[in-house]
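Backbone-to-sequence.
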């Protein structure tokens, strides 16, 4: 059914907006790159949570998807997506049962780094007469098993568990992405050197496992900030880039990221210009409607940015629960004006909405449900 709302400025606010032309351009930029290298793209769904976009990414060449939670994976599997890797650990009995139930109808692999959990998964799989696909997280910044001997020992133990099918290794070492205030000082080459050092440990571990007679199908690594480094690393099978589809504004400051455009925004209305506060204005977009970003050691807060030329003279000074606090040349605004914020963190912004309005230019051309919204379990 055609949308009754033709112009995006007719939408009620706060409203989440996807710029379709920029989204398509971002997907094409990434898929053009992956058409030139051996590894494939396995885009991360945690950024958009929208099956329609997953299908666009797969149509453009992705081999499957990455999800961060099993509940998220369930939504994408129901939408017909195959080859799903859950880049996380599952630990409680309820999750293990959910995973085994899904194994009957979905193509899903989960991360493991604990032998007791692996045993429980194997037992449940045997009882259900299925083979549960697992991949071992190699430790970098969060969970995981240390590379080399510890990982080899762990994989050999997994191989003895009859209900499991060992798929391979994956790693996430976002430690190679610098904090926003130093991003422009850290070159692409410096980040590549750090990234390759991390990947060296994983590939050495892969070789040790293979030499012990256990095949390793998956070597999954990397993310948006490293896509064109990981994409060229020998033996990597797939790259887990997520943020490139919408591109957060601080992320774009990294060398090489300027190819991707900010495709997500939140439309917000100026609700108050208090006469006694000369350079302050308030909008209806607060923390419930847009996320801020915490970078570095999670102590630095980066706020959204005002979109367009207004962003040169007006900045988001803060976010309270229901209000966006603007500072600067607010005399350029009047109450009732609609402006857009570009999120500093898109993944935690999409999760606040049931639907994204899709625009081409000013025209609203669709409304896509964010089906994995709230599936953070
Ligand atoms: C395990 C894992 N893989 C991939 C990604 C995707 O990273 P990006 O959004 O920078 O592409 C993340 C993001 O946090 C992650 O945790």
């Amino acid at each position: 059914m055609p949308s009754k709302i033709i112009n995006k400025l007719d939408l009620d606010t706060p409203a989440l907006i996807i710029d379709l032309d920029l989204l398509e351009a971002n997907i094409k930029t990434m898929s053009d790159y992956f058409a030139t290298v051996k590894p494939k793209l396995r885009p991360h769904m945690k950024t958009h949570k929208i099956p329609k976009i997953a299908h666009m990414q797969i149509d453009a060449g992705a081999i499957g998807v990455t999800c961060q939670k099993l509940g998220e994976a369930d939504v994408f599997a129901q939408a017909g997506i195959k080859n799903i890797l859950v880049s996380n650990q599952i630990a409680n009995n309820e999750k293990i049962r959910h995973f085994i139930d899904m194994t009957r109808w979905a193509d899903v692999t989960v991360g493991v780094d604990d032998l007791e959990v692996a045993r429980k998964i194997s037992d449940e799989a045997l009882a259900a007469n299925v083979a549960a696909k697992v991949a071992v997280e190699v430790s970098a910044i969060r969970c995981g098993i240390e590379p080399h001997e510890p990982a080899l020992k762990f994989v050999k133990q997994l191989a003895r568990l009859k209900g499991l099918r060992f798929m391979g290794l994956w790693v996430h070492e976002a430690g190679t992405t610098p904090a926003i205030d130093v991003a422009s000082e850290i070159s692409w080459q410096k980040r590549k050197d750090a990234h390759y050092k991390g990947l060296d440990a994983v590939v050495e571990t892969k070789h040790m496992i293979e030499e012990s007679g256990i095949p390793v199908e998956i070597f999954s690594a990397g993310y948006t900030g490293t896509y064109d480094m990981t994409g060229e690393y020998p033996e990597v099978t797939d790259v887990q880039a997520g943020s490139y589809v919408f591109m957060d504004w601080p992320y774009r400051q990294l060398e090489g990221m300027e190819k991707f455009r900010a495709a997500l925004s939140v439309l917000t209305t100026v609700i108050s210009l208090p006469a006694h506060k000369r350079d302050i204005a308030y909008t209806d977009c607060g923390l419930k409607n847009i996320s801020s970003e915490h970078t570095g050691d999670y102590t630095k807060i980066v706020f959204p940015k005002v979109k367009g030329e207004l962003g040169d003279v007006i900045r988001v000074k803060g976010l309270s629960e229901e209000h966006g606090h603007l500072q600067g040349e607010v005399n350029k605004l009047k109450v009732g004006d609609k402006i857009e914020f570009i999120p500093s963190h898109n993944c935690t912004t999409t999760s606040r909405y049931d639907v994204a309005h899709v625009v081409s230019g000013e025209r609203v051309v669709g409304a896509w449900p964010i089906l994995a919204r709230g599936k953070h379990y």
